[in-house]
Design a protein that fits this description.
The complex is a heterodimer of chains A (292) and B (154). Chain A is α+β, with helices and mostly antiparallel strands. Chain A contains eleven helices and 14 strands. Chain A has helices at residues 14-24, 37-42, 78-83, 85-90, 92-100, 104-109, 112-118, 126-131, 230-236, 243-256, 267-291, and strands spanning 7-9, 28-31, 50-53, 63-65, 69-73, 135-140, 143-148, 153-155, 158-159, 166-173, 178-186, 197-205, 212-220, 227-228. In chain A, a hairpin with a 6-residue loop joins β13 and β14. The termini of chain A are far apart. In chain A, 53% of the residues are buried. In chain B, α2 (87-94) crosses α5 (141-152) and α3 (104-117) packs parallel to α5. In chain B, a hairpin with a 2-residue loop joins β1 and β2 (12-18). Chain B has two domains: 3-78, Beta-grasp domain (Ubiquitin-like (UB roll), Roll), CATH 3.10.20; 87-153, [2Fe-2S]-binding domain (DNA polymerase, domain 1, Orthogonal Bundle). Chain B starts with a strand and ends with a helix. Chain B has 154 residues and is an alpha+beta fold. Classes of the chains: A alpha+beta (292), B alpha+beta (154). The structure holds flavin-adenine dinucleotide and FE2/S2 (inorganic) cluster (2 copies). One FE2/S2 (inorganic) cluster binds next to loops of chain B.
Chain lengths: 292, 154
């Protein structure tokens, strides 16, 4: 399987990378881990004139942690996320998503930025990030902007990132007080498969065993992009967590998703599993929140 | 246009001229004659092409040779030392963990990376460590036993 021909650039700094992207625009593709891009190029789905390697740029590989925020560089690898003790402690659902991605071999190459950049509706990293209300920082030669990940995906393979922009980091503001999140992905086997459905849920409580004051439920594989279960979230707010409440929310989430029949599963099955995973991820989230 | 890259493979330094669209797997097999890493799916699915890059096993079919510039690579050819085969290689032979052998180099590199980090892994940890390496022959059980046998010996 041959790769089409291209020029390879290896900028040493963010500034250099930005000016190359500014010059080439649509004719160039950024390459981080390459696990998505090279597979697509071998399948002859893409044939860019140039590849711009960014995985060795130090500024993109940082993990910056303070009391209030976690900043993850776009070229931070999925295996590093899976192994980070701080990520496990503060934003555990992201670590669970990272451990569910591909295989150990793939995780050692794959990056968080590449996972977001590839914009697959079944991807393992976005649901937890959206549930934590994470933001992406997009830079170009003319400046930078910050986009909420909830508004970042435009369709399969399409995002907010403009041809001259680079996703430089992901910012997660650590929520105050008692919060927790859960992520579950359902597939045919545990490693090396594409999800049938995946769900991440986030809740925060006003006090341990108190009422829910914010909630986000994110559903994958059931639409062109990840979907929020807005109505389900709304019935949670202002109420105390209970078996009945979560079952009710899960049922509403089931009605809010729009899966299609495909070779992986029927739409009816996917909807039913959205209900089950919504309930289970809410249980995990509340358990974690009460332990905080 | 070819680009010059420098990398270390099995403790030996190489300077090679490569095309930008050459994969690390093809560099190893066709330009350097290191055919231990196998070419299976070429899409990241099978793990037959696994090599250790800067301490971590990766699919060499999804790494460009130019991206391996400056890296330290270990292939299956670099696993034995002056005393002969690595204990895990011996265990694969003794436990019957090799049939056709196509998956073996990748399996051993994934297993070895785990043992280097965790000398006494659980069965679940072994299964997870080799979950990116497909085997069409052995049914995996003997491979798991081979890794376990090395860990018990300490
Ligand atoms: C065998 C196999 C199994 C897989 N299993 C899973 C799985 O279970 N779950 C899952 O979610 N994914 C899976 N993937 C897909 C892929 O591995 C992940 O999406 C991975 O995180 C991509 O990261 P990368 O660094 O390799 O991306 P790359 O291939 O380098 O890039 C992907 C896309 O993002 C763009 N991009 C990369 N970095 C940036 C940046 N900083 N700014 C702007 N654009 C950027 C690239 O131009 C490209 O279009 C699998 C892939 C393979 C080959
Ligand atoms: S040949 Fe690389 S994973 Fe199959
Ligand atoms: S021994 Fe034949 S594929 Fe594993």
């Amino acid at each position: 399987m041959l790769l089409p021909k291209f020029n390879f650039y290896e900028p040493k700094t963010q500034g250099e990378a930005l000016s190359i992207m500014n010059e080439y625009g649509l004719k160039a593709k950024l390459i981080a881990g390459g696990t998505d891009l090279l597979a697509n190029m071998k399948r002859k789905l893409l044939s860019p004139d140039a590849l711009v390697g960014i995985s060795e740029i130090e500024e993109f590989k940082n993990l910056e942690i303070s009391d209030k925020t976690i900043k993850i560089g776009s070229c931070f690898t999925v295996s590093a996320i899976a192994e980070s003790a701080v990520i496990e402690k503060k934003i555990s659902a992201l670590a669970v998503g990272a451990r569910a991605l591909g295989t150990p071999l793939i995780r050692n190459l794959a990056t968080i930025g590449g996972n977001l950049g590839s914009a697959r509706p079944a991807a393992d990293i976005p649901p937890s990030l959206i549930a934590y209300n994470a933001k992406a920082v997009l830079k170009s030669v003319s400046g930078e902007r910050t986009v909420l990940l909830d508004k970042f995906f435009k369709g399969p393979g399409f995002t907010e990132i403009q041809p001259n922009e680079i996703l430089t980091e992901i910012i997660i503001d650590i929520p105050d007080g008692y919060y927790g999140a859960g992520y579950i992905n359902l597939g045919i086997r545990k490693a090396q498969d594409c999800n049938i459905v995946n769900v991440a849920s986030f809740v925060s409580l006003d006090e341990p065993n108190g009422v829910i004051n914010s909630a986000r439920i994110v559903m994958g594989c059931v639409g062109p992009t990840h979907l929020r279960a807005n109505a389900a979230e709304n019935i949670l707010i202002g109420n105390k967590p209970s078996e009945k409440l979560f079952q009710e929310a899960a049922k509403i989430a089931e009605s809010e998703c729009k899966p299609i029949d495909d070779f992986r599963a029927s739409a009816v099955y996917k909807k039913a599993m959205i209900r089950v995973l919504t309930k289970r991820t809410l249980d995990i989230a509340v358990k974690e929140a009460s332990l905080k | 246009m070819k680009q010059i890259i420098n990398l270390t493979i099995n403790d030996k330094k190489y300077e090679v001229a490569v095309d930008a669209n050459l994969t690390l797997l093809d560099l190893l097999r066709y330009q350097l004659g290191l055919t231990g890493a196998k070419k299976g799916c070429e899409l990241g699915d099978c793990g037959a092409c696994a090599v250790i890059m800067d301490g971590k096993p990766v699919n060499s079919c999804l790494v460009l040779a130019v991206q391996a510039n400056g890296k330290n690579i270990t292939t299956i050819e670099g696993v034995e030392d002056e005393n002969g085969l690595h204990p895990l290689q011996k265990a694969f032979v003794e436990k019957g963990a090799i049939q056709c052998g196509f998956c073996t180099s990748g399996m051993i590199l994934s297993g070895k990376t785990l043992l280097d980090k965790k000398p006494n892994p659980t069965e679940t940890e072994i299964k997870s460590a080799i979950s990116g390496n497909l085997c069409r022959c052995t049914g995996y059980q003997k491979i798991i036993e081979a890794v376990q046998s090395v860990s018990c010996e300490g």
